Amino acid sequence: MTCLAKPAWIRKTISPSSLDPVKNLLAAARLNTVCDQARCPNMGDCFSEGTATVLILGKICTRNCRFCAVEHGIPVAPDAEEPQRVARAVQKMGLRYVVITSVTRDDLDEGGASQFARTIREIYSLDRGIKTEVLIPDFKGESASLADVLRAQPTVLSHNVETVPGLYSRVRPQADFGRSLHLLKMSSQIDPKIPVKTGFMLGLGETDDEVLRLLHDLREAGCDLLTIGQYLQPRPDLLPVFRYVHPDEFEFFRIKGLEMGFKAVASGPFVRSSYRAMELIEQL
């Protein structure tokens, strides 16, 4: 497929100097961010506002999704001191709402769930007023791992389905849509008080009917919060953009989501699951 020209609504510039304060703080704490690893287009906005999405469990993923720029391979063992370092960095940054995510760790029996739980508890031990959103992998579908994270009482439990089921073999060959959908449903059943959030991308070759069916399935699974954004090719060796979706189409799916019963929907070209996440939860 030939490279598509970016339309006017998809262009964004980053001022390098605005990134330095947060980058320096995270480097001093020896922490990674998904903002940097995944080459997020919103990194300049978030870093200049003093926020970041912390990436725990290292920076090497055991899976190789065709849309993601995060390095894949054989990861190192989890760092026992990482939860404390995350908590101290969050406190130093003065964050009132923090998103914690991770690479997928299929090499670990519990998928890294205990590290999520410890990180949440360490943050609360320093300041119980800080809200925590965890963007988790699928934990290979293990309910015990999910329950371990939920017992730590995150403010929001998030897991992204990323695309429509029909594109999984091309976009997420090592993932399974049914497993992800079941995980979201289990979360709403294990602790109904914790809002469940998910997100996916447009522009990978999905049809409108597939998107509407996905919205229905996600709502039936108990998802409360939803993000929809434009896929942007982060590296030349990854999947090309099939098409750039017009902002009016994003608005159409936002309205459809609300009509189906989602409590809050963020939908737009630059929307990402953790970008200004607090604004979405405030709509509840």
Give average pLDDT, whole number. 89
Number of strands: 8
Using only C-alpha atoms, the radius of gyration works out to: 18 Å
CATH homologous superfamily grouping: Aldolase class I
CATH topology: TIM Barrel
Percent range of helical residues: 25-40%
Number of H/I helices: 11
Helices and strands in order:
Layout: H1 20-28, E1 32-33, H2 34-37, H3 43-48, E2 53-56, H4 82-93, E3 97-102, H5 113-126, E4 131-135, H6 143-151, E5 156-158, H7 168-171, H8 177-190, E6 196-202, H9 208-220, E7 225-230, H10 247-260, E8 264-267, H11 277-281
Parallel strand pairs: 2-3, 3-4, 4-5, 5-6, 6-7, 7-8
Antiparallel strand pairs: 1-2
Helix pairs in contact: 4-5, 5-6, 6-8, 9-10
Description:
The structure is a single chain. Helix 5 (113-126) runs parallel beside helix 6 and helix 6 packs across helix 8 (177-190). Strand 3, helix 5 (113-126) and strand 4 (131-135) form a beta-alpha-beta unit. The radius of gyration is 18 Å and the shape is globular. By secondary structure, it is of the alpha/beta class. The mean pLDDT is 89. It has a single domain (16-281), classed as Alpha-Beta Barrel (TIM Barrel). It contains 11 helices and 8 strands. Strands 1-2-3-4-5-6-7-8 form an 8-stranded mixed β-sheet.
